[in-house]
Amino acid sequence: MKTAVVTGASRGIGEAIAKRLCEKSFAVALIYKNSDEKANELKREMLSLGFVAECYQADVSSSSQVNAVFEKISAELGSVEVLINNAGISQQSLFTEITDEMWNEMIGTNLTGVFNCCRAATPEMIKNHSGVIVNIASMWGETGASCEVHYSAAKAGVIGLTKALAKEVGVSGIRVNAVSPGVIKTDMLNPFSESDLDELKKETPLNRLGTPEDVANAVEFLISDKASFITGQVLSVNGGFVI
Ligand code: NDP
To answer: Ligand 1 atom closest to Cα of 181?
Structure first.
């Protein structure tokens, strides 16, 4: 059984990806930061279906926590074959009101977190000459979003990291791609009112908000052998919002 790591697996998109990887017969490490109960609930649900899943608490912005948790995962579940960097935070703020703390937390979680997890996972992948990484970016990383400069900058960084790492580790049998979601109905949209969401829906050519399963479908494709000649790419899952 191959091992997959999903960061931010306790809720939303990460939860849907973790379920999908269990269904695809991976042993899945569920990394979360705070939602102990939700992560354990998901683990129990997966075990009850006969799948293999284990919870690991770590703040992805901390390299020491990430290194320690990847060592634990390798020891308990086996060397990591698939890494899905999904953990993230979002925030709306006028540019002039972004504080050092807000900037550092955003870049720390959404960009340094991806770096930390890739750095922890790749040595074994290189040794095994096999591995797949999928980073969850955002359409705002492609286009930029007003009042989300820090978020957009972090996600643009994730896209740059994806492309550069793909070039470096392709020769070692590792593929690295990004999925770039549009508006996906999760807790991340809680700050938006129903009328805001309706507006976003109307701006989406396919006239609906995305679901976590829409993103999981793209991840499932990218980790599969059907994507064996695809690396360094950004697969947009946005209903046509950004083309
Ligand atoms: P949610 O807010 O629903 O879930 C976020 C997840 O990330 C949680 O599991 C949370 O853990 C985890 N997390 C947050 N910070 C950390 C951290 N420092 N260390 C470890 N885990 C952390 O978000 P979504 O499911 O909506 O988003 C998932 C990804 O998709 C994010 O990267 C987001 O930017 C991206 N995305 C989302 C879009 C959307 O419209 N929803 C659109 C485009 C991109 P815990 O529960 O423990 O706090």
So the answer is: 43
